[in-house]
Write a sequence for this structure.
């Protein structure tokens, strides 16, 4: 097995539209691809997608630091998801 296998995770990102910037608020290493996808899919199933111009997104990140998929949420949803996972975003 490859050593990089344990680096899949999620990035909680706030979008600054005015300044065209992405600000990472929280990065979580969830271990394997299976675990990261499981948590990411659960978030998608339990939280309604923000279909307007998103102010925040959650990225599914692979072992190379590449974004595999993202899911737009409101800032309040992002705070709730982080809290449910045992973390705090302000």
């Amino acid at each position: 097995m490859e050593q990089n296998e344990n680096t899949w995770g999620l990035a909680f990102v706030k979008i600054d539209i005015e300044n065209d910037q992405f600000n990472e608020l929280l990065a979580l290493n969830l271990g394997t691809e299976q675990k990261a996808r499981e948590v990411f899919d659960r978030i998608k199933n339990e939280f309604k997608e923000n279909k307007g111009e998103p102010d925040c997104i959650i990225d599914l990140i692979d072992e190379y630091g590449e974004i595999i998929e993202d899911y737009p949420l409101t800032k309040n949803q992002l705070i709730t998801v982080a809290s449910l996972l045992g973390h705090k975003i302000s």
